[in-house]
Amino acid sequence: MTLPDPAAGPAGAARTFQVDLRGLVGLLSHHLYSSPRVYLRELLQNAVDALTARHGLEPAAPAGAFGIRLYADGSVVRVEDDGVGLTEADVHTFLATIGRSGKRAAGIPADEPVPGWGRIAEQRGDFIGQFGIGLLSCFLVADEIHVLSRSARTPDAPAVEWRGRGDGSYTVRTLPASARPRPGTTVTLTPRADAGEWTRPAQVHALARHSGSLLRHPVTFDDGTGATGGPGAAVNPEPAPWTRTYPTPGARSRALAAYGEEVFGFVPLDTIELGLPAVGLKGIACVLPEAVPAGRRHGHRVHVKGMLLSEQAEEILPEWAFFVRCVVDAESLRPTASRESLYEDDALAAVRDALAERLRAWIARAAASDPDLLGRFLQVHHLAVKSLAVHDDEILRMLLPWLPSETTDGHTTLDEFARTHRTVLVTSSVEEFRQVAAIASAAGLGVVNGGHTYDRELVHRLPEIRPEATVADLDPATLTAHLDPVDRETELAAAAYLALARDALAVFDCDVALRTFQPASAPALLVDSREARHERTRSRLAREQEGGLWGDILGALRQEAPRAQLILNQLNPLVRTAVAIDEPELARTSAEALYGQAALLSRRPLRPAESSLINRSFPGLLAHALRKDS
Ligand SMILES: Nc1ncnc2c1ncn2[C@@H]1O[C@H](COP(=O)(O)OP(=O)(O)OP(=O)(O)O)[C@@H](O)[C@H]1O
Asked: Does the keyword Cell inner membrane apply (predicted)?
């Protein structure tokens, strides 16, 4: 933390920026880090990097030879490592210069050795830190950072003590080697009173477990009383579950599922093992046991070199993978400065693609050899899978035989449906499907309800997979155009009734026609669409507001609104009786009741005028029937 000398130089001379360290720490705490708790993660991460560098220096040292020891007794927090350590020169260069990192030293060419940290070109990918600001996070909980270090690179160098303060001042002094007999670094914080929440022993232990449970170096915690398992209790007693060996594949998958449950709090529907040797990534994807809204992205847990980097990393999987949550540990993914998400670069894009590939392979394997698992999966996640299949040929090809849809043959798979219906018709809304389903199926036509999310798009992709299938959109107007007209005589006989009915239904902009169609049990079909209804409402408002501002605007928007159509079925006995009624009032009421029933059948929300029509017409018919009987 070098504070430049503010002494005035000669006029026009170049000066150096001054840094207000308090302002900088405030900036970090409010805008970079999500909470003061990150200080422990930063200290742990520095210790991990120092151990990595030490192993680089002494490659023959056994894996667990160097470790990290945490101590917190309520009055101090200490993090001690057997890492590469620092010389006095390192302290000035790296500890005391904000933005300077021993792992990415400014001004040092990439292939030059950085003191104590090896050749950057060879090792940069080995370290988690790179920005040279992480240590500042300690000022979120303490006013002073005390560092005692001894370099492993220069064993005969003295121990060095550095004290950095939040006001930007620091001191450095060398101490005899006996002050720190072994190489490594000890960072000690004396927490401020207002930081007790983050520095009490139980919290330090919990924070260390949270971010360090998968670290590959031995990490211990001591609270000075033995309450947390005595001095030297391991923070990471078990290696990551995917690195362990198990007696049987069953035992392995049970252990992975148990870990998934421990981490995410749900029993996974299945656990998918992930492994990408190119970036040293291993982990699991847990399939959610319950459906989630399409498009909702989940945070995944990403560790880098064992260190928990983020619990909310969305970027690691593509958007369509919202049916899983992952926990992975990678060697060389780059964290952002806040350390809470991943740096979006080519490597991350490649990881995302490769992980997506693993998920696809899992689906393919389930489709090929575990129909029971696939059935359970689709029952919960068919929507997610459909969203995936719309853009992904391979998934579409693989899962087409399994994807359920609502059709005129009931709930069936598209594949099955395409086998029985050479031409597959699809509606664009649920409402339209309800209007046409009965008539279309009575006429032997196969219709898929395309109103559910993704279904219409999927049906249209069907011929790519089943070239023998043809797909066409079906709207009610097309269907009614193909209904059989009645003969002239019948039409004439019904003319008076139809005129009355048109008059009664004029308020709904509804025309009335007589046709013959199957099933004979259906008295009437109400052909209408939401767009047409909106258009009619707009026209009506424009008429009402004529001359005013809104009237002009609505008038300008006006289009030719298709009218609704009530098509009465001449084959239906009730309709046959109705058209012969010679009592005008009763004929009117019967037409209203037929309209009301057809509107109810379409299951769309009724407009207030329609509800009052139903409330009027049905009791009217009832009263008439009772009068007749008495
Ligand atoms: N425990 C440690 N052992 C050895 N050197 C350390 C240790 N802690 C910090 N340093 C040195 O101090 C430098 C600054 O540390 P700091 O945590 O501020 O940044 P960084 O880890 O380099 O990058 P980042 O901001 O991404 O964390 C490090 O690059 C390293 O050279």
From this structure: no
Residues 6+ apart with CB under 8 A from 109: none
Q: pLDDT tens digits for 462-482?
A: 998 889 999 999 877 777 777
Same domain membership, residue 554 and residue 580: yes
Domain shared by 132 and 219, yes or no: yes
Given a cut of 60, whether residue 110 has pLDDT beyond it is no
Specify the ligand 1 atom closest to the Cα of 83. 3
Give the residue, 93 or 174, on which the prediction is more confident.
Answer: 174
The CATH number of the domain where 414 resides is what?
Answer: 3.40.50
- The whole-number average pLDDT for the span 416-434 is 90
Q: What is the pLDDT of residues 554-577, one digit of tens each?
A: 566 555 566 788 999 999 999 999
Q: How far is the CA of 584 from the centre of ligand 1 (A)?
A: 93
C-alpha Rg value of the chain to the nearest Å: 37
| Residue 208 Cα to ligand 1 middle (Å) | 18
Which pLDDT score is estimated for 556?
62
Residue 119: pLDDT band with limits 50, 70, 90: very low
The pLDDT of residue 580 is above 90: yes
Residues 6+ apart with CB under 8 A from 610: 508, 596, 599
Instruction: Report the alpha-carbon distance of residue 86 to residue 157 in Å, rounded.
Output: 9
Domain final residue pick, 451, 480, 509: 480
User: Which H or E run contains 495?
Assistant: helix 488-505
Hey, which bits of 214-340 come out as E strands? 219-222, 233-234, 271-276, 281-287, 300-304, 307-313, 324-330
Indicate if ipTM > 0.90. yes
Are residues 578 and 550 located together in one domain of the fold?
Answer: yes
Pocket of ligand 1 (CB under 6 A): 42, 46-47, 50, 81, 83-86, 94-95, 101-103, 129-135, 185
Q: Is 81 annotated as a binding residue?
A: yes
The DSSP secondary structure of 306-355, one letter per residue, reads TEEEEEEE-TTS-TT-TTEEEEEEESSPPB-TTSSSB--SHHHHHHHHHH
CA of 100 to the centre of ligand 1 (A): 9
Reference 161, options 180, 142, 143; nearest CA is: 180
pLDDT, tens only, 38-53: 999 999 999 999 999 9
Q: Do 445 and 328 belong together in one domain?
A: no
Q: How many domains does the chain have?
A: 4
Measure the N-to-C terminal CA separation of the chain; round to a whole number of Å. Answer: 103
Task: State the pTM of this model.
Answer: 0.72
